[in-house]
Amino acid sequence: MMNVITVDRPSERDEVVANGPEEATPPALILPDHPLIKIRPNQKWAPLDWRELWAHRDLFAILVIRDVTIRYKQTLLGIAWAVVQPIVMMGTYTVIFGRFGHIPSDGIPYPLFAFAALLPWTFLSNAVQASGNSLINNSHLITKVYFPRILIPAASVGMGLVDFGIAAIVLAGLMLYYHVGVTWKLLMFPPLLLLTATLCLGLGVWAAALNVRYRDVRHVLPFFLQVWMFLSPIIYPLSLLPPRWQRVAALNPLYGIIENIRVSLFNLGRGFDWYLLGCSAAISLAILVSASFVFRRVETSMADVI
Question: N vs C: which end of the chain shows fewer Cβ within 10 Å?
C-alpha cells in the first residue's frame, strides 16, 4: 500500500520570513485613470467660493454667538448696551438740533426722526469698526486652522444685526408713544435692512483686509466714520439741501437708505425715492464685490503677515 505525503505550499508570509523583507515582492500599484486631486496655481483675483461658505454656515453662527457673548460678558447692563448709545445720541440731538437749532424733521417728532436714522447708522458704525479689527483680534484662529477667513468680519456684521433687532424694539415703542401708525410701506423695511447689511459687510471686509497690511486703518476708521455721520441725513432731512446738491448727495449710499427707511416707517406724505435707493444699492453692491476680490487676494498671505 502506497503512502501519499501532502506538502503544503508556503504562504507569502513564510516566503518573506525565509527570504528576508528586502526580497519581498511589492504589490502592484494601480493608478486611477483620472487624477483625484488637481493642483493649480492661485489666481490673482479669485472670486469667493460660495459652496465653501455654505459648508461653513454652522461656523458662522458659532462665531456670531461667540462675539455677542464676549461683547456683553461681565457687563452690568448686558445686552441693554445695544440701545444705550442710540438713545443717548437721540436725546442729545433732540435738545441741541431739534429744540435749540430748530432743524426741521419732516413733520414728525424730532426724537422719532433722529432715532430712525440712528438705528441704521449705529448698526453700520459698530459693524464696520468691529469688522475692521476682527482679523487682528482673531489672529490665533487664523494661524492655527483653515476656514474661510471672510467669516470673521461677516460674524461682526451678524453681531450688529442682533443689536439692530434690539434697538428696533425701542423704535417700535417710541412709535406707539407718539401714536404713529404704520402703512403698507413698512414692507420695504426688511429689504432696506438687507441693503444696510450689504453696505456694512462690504465696508467691513474692505477695512479688515486693509488692516492686515496697514495697521493705520484702526486709527483712521473712527475719524472717517465721525465725518461720514455729519455728511449723512441723520440730524437733518434731505429737503434741507438745495435741489442741485440732493443729486450729488446720492453718492453717499446712506442717503438712499436713511431717507427711504423714514418713508417706510412714517407717513410722510411722499413715496420712496427710487433714484436714491438705486444709487445706494449699486454703490453697496460695488463695494461688496470689490471687497470680496481684495479680501481673497490678501487671504493667501494673511497667516504670514498677521
Answer: N
